[in-house]
Amino acid sequence: MPTGALPDHSASSKSSDAGELSLDPADWEEFRATAHRALDDAIDFLRTVRERKVWRPVPEEVRSALAAPVPTEGQPLEEVYRQFQDLILPYATGNIHPRFYGWVHGTGLAGGIVAEMLAASMNANCGGRDHGAIYVERTVVDWCKKQFDFPAEASGLLVSGTSMANLIGLGVARNSLPGANVRRDGVGDYPRELTGYASAEAHESAAKAFEIMGLGGAALRKIPVDEALRIRMDVLREKIAEDRRAGLEPFCVIGSAGTVNTGAIDDLDALATLCENEGLWFHVDGAFGALGVLSDSVRPMLKGIERADSIAFDFHKWMFVQYDAGCILVRDGAKHRAAYSMRPPYLNHLQRGLAGGGDWPCDFGPELSRSFRALKIWFAMKEHGTRKLGRMIDQNCAQAQYLRGRILEHLELELLAPVQLNIVCFRFHPPGLDDPRLLDRLNEELVADLQESGVAVPSTTRIGGRLAVRVAITNHRSRMVDFDILLAAMLEAGGRRIAGSAAV
Length: 504
Ligand SMILES: *Cc1c(COP(=O)(O)O)cnc(C)c1O
Hints:
This protein is an alpha/beta fold. 40% of the residues lie in helices and 12% in strands. It has helices at residues 28-47, 60-66, 77-88, 110-122, 132-147, 162-175, 182-185, 204-212, 233-245, 268-278, 333-340, 373-409, 436-453, 480-499, and strands spanning 155-159, 194-199, 220-223, 249-256, 281-285, 310-314, 326-330, 413-415, 423-428, 459-463, 466-472. The strands form 2 sheets. It has a 7-stranded mixed β-sheet, with helices on both faces. The longest helix has 37 residues, at 373-409. It is globular, with a radius of gyration of 26 Å. The structure holds pyridoxal-5'-phosphate. Pyridoxal-5'-phosphate (PLP) binds next to helix 6.
């Protein structure tokens, strides 16, 4: 094994420094003490999270303290750390807490603290070149390809999240359109207007990708959903045919593997067949749901995902990895590379040395400089293993079913959507109160009440026009009892608002 040690040049180097600047610690032992304390504090912070409020607002004096002038002079690390403890740490989002269910936020992992610290010490730039971090990323991508039964020639890239992954995947679809050079000529010169399709419940990042790609948001057709909130295949087929008749060029379909509102999973197998028959690119937005392939109970619902041309998903949601960590996989690695690769002379690939190695990540997306995201994912998968990570997903689904059952027991609570995965949409609906606008406002207030009380954090959405309290469970710290606490707090806050009905 190489030791990495260099020959000793100390005899030839000057012994006294010439007053040259360095940003390294003047006293490494002092730095060590501060760093050790910060790590210890971080561990305590995580370990005691259950004892604290989920969230609390940032007070005015803290906001103004943070809006400080530019620090022209430095101060000891110890002092900066103290300010972090006072001004920043207490006002976290709350998603590390066992009763955080807002939006779809992952919880983070204790091991992630170590991985992030180590990645920072290496400070790798993962745009490319030949160094260890690149091999870790390749391994992580290969593991993902295996999970989704993707072929060896598939490619992948770690990205900030599914928004970016959707953009990159759909960008491959656009850039590899036959009979055109979209990279050189843009879409303006394309002979026919391009259109894509997704369910009305699809995440807006897909529409944003259409905007960024220069296709216009309206080019993404929003197809209505069935009662289980899945894309309606009959309407989709009709719409594609109609667009073709109108001289447009359908080029892709986006399947949702776990919609953000309710966790609905489109019929991916049917979408794959349709795309095959129609010659369309099949992209799957599986931000949180796609990792259901790790779970025995969810995997069957994802049948067909292995036939996708590209899959976008997040590790920071249902694999609980620290933010940010998403991934795009592309079945045809050559198309992926052709869509983004660009090698000016200063990025020349050489046969040996640091500028060597295999594929460089910068050839598979828009970013050149990139962080070592792969390390925290590698740590998470190694430390916990895919089996346990899959069982964690099962547990969250079981908790959603438990919550559903508890909601059905209460007359004042109303379920608003089927619970298919890990998301429960419901509302407080006391008998006799039927004004839709009042109910919407009441539930909006209740969610804010809960968040401000610090007991639990659900969020809101709209289901069939009605405001829903949304509980999305991508939380490995939640226990069944946490859902009892959530409902008790909700019923109590609801009762209070009804009693003092001026507030309703
Ligand atoms: C969260 C989410 C996204 C966006 O992912 P980011 O990681 O936040 O960029 C896209 N689609 C779905 C279904 C999501 O849940």
